[in-house]
Design a protein that fits this description.
By secondary structure, the protein is mostly helical. About 50% of the residues lie in helices and about 10% in strands. It is built from three helices and two strands, in the order ββααα. A two-stranded antiparallel sheet has the order 1-2.
């Protein structure tokens, strides 16, 4: 499904970028251009980032 119509970016492209280490909206803006034209996709981009954070727990280094 298209998330960013302005830049023709799909949810699969965003999920792939997130899996490859693009972990913030700023990273995704630079990588894919999402949220840089009208901004209507920003809430959905945030939702995809939040879902990834929930699915991927942070591993804390032992002190």
């Amino acid at each position: 499904m298209y998330v960013c119509v302005c830049k023709a970016v799909t949810d699969k492209q965003i999920k792939s970028a997130i899996s490859n280490g693009y972990c913030s909206r700023k990273d995704l803006n630079k990588c894919l251009g999402v949220g840089t034209v009208c901004g209507k996709c920003s809430p959905h981009v945030k939702q995809l980032l939040d879902e990834h954070r929930v699915q991927t727990p942070i591993m804390w280094a032992a002190a």
